[in-house]
Amino acid sequence: MLQDSESFTIEAVDSETEGGSLIPTPPKAAWLSPGNTLFNFFDGERHETVRAALNPHFSRRQVKKMEGAIKSKVNQVLDQVSSMPEFDIIYDLASPIVAGVVNDHMGFGLEDPAPIFRAMSDQSHDKKAEVDDQAIVTFKDGWIYIGEVVRARRAEPRDDVISALTLANDGQFTDLEIQGMCINIIFGAADTAAALTAHSLTFLADRPDLRAQLRDDPRQIPNFVREGLRYFNVAMGVARSAKRDVELGGAKIHKGDRVFALLPSANLDPARYDHPDEFDISRGALPHLGFGSGVHTCLGAGLAQAIVVAVIQALLERVETYSIDTAKVVGNPDKSFINLFHRAPMRIESFREPVSH
Ligand code: HEM
After folding, report:
1. What whole-number distance in Å separates Cα of residue 117 and Cα of residue 131?
2. What are the tens digits of pLDDT across the range 255-286?
3. Phi/psi at 331 (nearest 5 deg)?
4. Residue of the CA atom closest to atom 9 of ligand 1
5. Average predicted confidence (pLDDT) for the chain
6. Which of 7, 296, 316, 355 has the fewest beta carbons closer than 10 A?
7. Whose CA is nearest to atom 11 of ligand 1?
C-alpha cells in the first residue's frame, strides 16, 4: 500500500474522503497545515519537488558530515544531565539533543529549541476535540517565528538548509512553502527519535550483557538501533485513501476507503523474520518498515539513526551503570499512531573513567 502510489494517496480523493496519515484526521488539521503546505499532506509532482529539494540535506553522505556536530551536542547534553541525581530521558536528554541538532542544521536560530519542538508536536498529536488554547498559541507563535526566519534567510542567506531552500527549485518555493517544510520537519523529528532513544536505553538497562557487547564493539551499535526500529515500533502506522478499487492481500478495497498500515504487523511478521519477537542484533541489514516506505518514507531516517547511535555510544563510553525506574515510566496511552514515552526517569549509578571526546 505504501509503495503503490497509483492506487493509494495521502490526500483526500473526493468530498467524502478525508486525507492525511491518521484515522481519523486530527480535528485541528487546519491549524497544522495553513495553506496546506505540509508535504506529508500532499502527493504527486508537488511532493516530488519538495522531496527533491530536501533529500540531499538528509542523505547518508550529509549525515556522515554531521557526525562530529551530533557527537558534540550529545556530549554537551550528557555533561548537563551527569550532574543531576535523576533526569528524564525524553525531556532532559533526548529531546534537547534531537531539537538541537535539527535546529542547527535547518538554521532555525532558536536558543533553546526543545520546548518549542515539543509544544508544536504536542499540537500535532493532540486528538482532543476541544481546543487547547495554549498549544495553539505556541503553534501559532512557532509558525510565525519560522516565517520570520525564512524571510531573513532569503534576504541574507547563511550556511543552513533554510537558506538553501530559498535558492532551490530555481528560487520558486514561496516563503509559506518553506515554512511548511520546516514545520513538517519539526513534527517528524520532535518525538520520534527521542522515543527510540528511550526505548533503547530502557531495554539496555536490563541487558548488561548487550551493554558490554556494544561497548566492546561499538560498530555493532548501528545494528542495535536498526533492530530497535523493527522491534520497538516507534511508528505504529500510517493511513492512506484508495484512489481506485484495488485488491490487497485478498481484501477488496474500494475507491475512497481509508486504509491503515499497521507497521508492527510487517515488522513482526514471522514470514519475514525468524523468531520475530526476539531482539536480535545479528539480523544485520534485513529491511524493516520502521520509517515507512514509498514516496513518503521518512526524510530523517539517516539522521535519527545517527543521533540514537551517538547517544548510546557516548553513554556506554561514559557511564558504567544506570537505572530506570520502570514504575515511573509513562508512555502515551493512545499508541495507535506513535509509541512514545512521556516520562522515563533515569539515574546514573556509576561513571567510567573519563574518555576524551
Ligand atoms: C526514530 C525516529 C523516526 C521514526 C520512527 C520516523 C518514522 C516516520 C515514518 C513511519 C514516516 C512515514 C509517514 C507516512 O508514510 O505517512 C515518516 C515521515 C517523515 N519523517 Fe520521520 N521518523 C523518525 C525521525 C525523523 C526525524 C529525525 C525527522 C527530521 C529530521 C523526520 C522527518 C520526517 C518527515 C519530514 C516525514 C514526512 C515525509 C514525507 O511525507 O515525504 N523523521 N517518519
Report:
1. 19
2. 999 999 999 999 999 999 999 999 999 998 88
3. -100, 175
4. 291
5. 90
6. 355
7. 298
Atom of ligand 1 nearest to the CA of 39: 40
pLDDT digits 0-9 by tens, 213-265: 999 999 999 999 999 999 999 999 999 999 999 999 899 999 999 999 999 99
Ligand 1 in reach of 163 Cβ (< 6 A): no
> For residue 103, which amino acid is it?
N
- Please give the number of the atom of ligand 1 that sits closest to the Cα of 184: 35
**Paired residues of 193 in beta bridges:** none
Look at ligand 1, atom 39, and give the residue with the nearest C-alpha: 296
Q: Is the pLDDT of residue 128 over 50?
A: no
β strands within the chain, DSSP E: 8-9, 87-88, 237-242, 246-248, 251-253, 258-262, 319-324, 330-331, 341-343, 345-351
Q: Is the pLDDT reported for residue 133 higher than 80? A: no
Instruction: Report the nearest atom of ligand 1 relative to the CA of 195.
Output: 1
Contact 185 CB / ligand 1 (< 6 Å):
yes
In 3D space, the residue among 112, 113, 114, 139 whose CA is nearest the CA of residue 124 turns out to be 139
Instruction: Give the 3-state DSSP-derived string for 185-202, with helices as H, strands as E and coil as C.
Output: HHHHHHCHHHHHHHHHHH
CA of 198 to the centre of ligand 1 (A): 17
How far apart are alpha carbons 3 and 294 in whole angstroms? 4
Highest-confidence segment of 137-141, 300-304, 343-347: 300-304
**Residue 107 Cβ contacting ligand 1 at under 6 Å:** no
* Residue-range domains of the chain with CATH: 8-351 (1.10.630.10)
Of all atoms in ligand 1, which is nearest to the CA of residue 105? Answer: 30
What sign does the CA torsion over 298, 300, 306, 312 have? negative
Q: Of the residues 41, 48, 192, 295, which should be mutated to test ligand 1's pocket, given the most ligand atoms within 8 Å of the CB?
A: 192
Report cis status (omega within 30 of 0) of the bond before 276: no
